[in-house]
Amino acid sequence: MLKLVAKSPAEGLVPIAVGAMELNEVVPAAITSIACYHGQSAALSAALKEHHGMALPKTGQATGRAGARAIWAGPSVFLVGPEPDADLSNHAAIVDQSDSWCVLNLKGADVEAVLARLSSVDMRLKSMKKGQVVRSQLQHMNAIYHRVSDDSFDIYAFRSMAKTMVHDIDRAMRYIASRA
Amino acid sequence: MRIPCPICGERDRREFYYQGDALALNRPDPDAGDGAWNDYIHNRDNPAGVTCDLWHHEAGCSNWLVVTRNTVTHEVLGAELASKVKGEQE
Questions:
Q1: What percent of chain A is predicted at pLDDT more than 90?
Q2: A31-96: CATH number
Q3: Cis omega before residue B6 (within 30°)?
Q4: B55 contacts B17 by C-beta, under 8 angstroms
Q5: Which domains occur in chain B, in start order?
Q6: Three-state SS at B83
Q7: Contact A167, A152 (CB under 8 A)
Q8: Which residues are CB-neighbours of A9 under 8 A, at least 6 positions away?
Q9: pLDDT tens per residue, range A94-120
Q10: Which chain B residues are closer than 8 Å to A136 by Cβ?
Q11: Cα distance from B59 to chain A (closest Cα, Å)?
């Protein structure tokens, strides 16, 4: 039987370190889209709490912690990390998205300057608090930004565009570093 | 041009996809007759002044919005969720 070699979305593209900044890949065990059925948000939130220890995040927010998070993703919520409990499907449409996203962590002292080169949304550290989530663009493609710590953001973009994503972030990091 | 998305806040126009006149929300009854359907499909006003369009917040929350703007001054007057506007009509 042929055995295929599994590769992470950004394998061979990161890590990258430039100036005060680093770009690393985050590889969640699973990413699942959870689209709440009409009128079920309270029940879904209770089920998420019971099985995964986190409430349903509100608009522009995330709950949970590293390794098991729920992040707002527009029409649905992404469960990032754990395999979804079967009970969730009583309250929401569950779709496996594990192989659809490339997740990179951008970290360092210049993080807000680098983000300002990637998106038109105000993601300065004083405007966007820890645990907040923004859906916007990364240059010309759609992306999700989640501030996870004092100086780092997880960025989600389409796996098929991983090389573009790394290229765009890498270029922004180099421009900022060259101005220092 | 910036559009005040009710979910995401004020965002750049590049995040949105333009669909057309918000008249599209007022779909006639299937039996409304050729005249009503002809109007619905083909005829649009071209106002010099306030107009309402459908925009999709494609690179944001993925909601459809009804954006009110002024074609003369290019002023954006407001935006509401299309689902809410439609809900109020029914």
A1: 89
A2: 3.30.70
A3: no
A4: yes
A5: 2-89 (3.30.2270.10)
A6: helix
A7: no
A8: A25, A27, A101, A102, A103, A159, A162
A9: 999 999 999 999 999 999 999 999 999
A10: 11, 15, 59-60
A11: 5
Q: Which one of B7, B15, B63 has the shortest CB-CB distance to A136?
A: B15
Strand-pairing partners, residue B73, are none
| pTM for the predicted model, two decimal places | 0.91
Residue ranges per structural domain of chain A: 16-27+99-179, 31-96
Q: Kindly list the residues from chain A whose CB atom is less than 8 angstroms away from the CB atom of residue B63.
A: 74-75
CB A78 within 8 A of CB A56: no
Domain at A16-27+99-179: CATH architecture: 2-Layer Sandwich (3.30)
User: Any chain A CB within 8 A of the CB of B81?
Assistant: no
Chain A to chain B Cβ contacts (< 8 Å): 31
DSSP code per residue over chain A = ---PPP--TTBTTB-EEETTEEEEEE--S-EEEEEEPTT-HHHHHHHHHHHHS-PPPPTTBEEEETTEEEEEETTEEEEESSPPPGGGGGTEEEEE-TTTEEEEEEEETTHHHHHHHH-SS---TTTS-TTBEEEEEETTEEEEEEEEETTEEEEEEEGGGHHHHHHHHHHHHHHHHHH-
> How far is Cα A150 from Cα A125, in angstroms, rounded to an integer?
8
**Complex confidence, ipTM:** 0.84
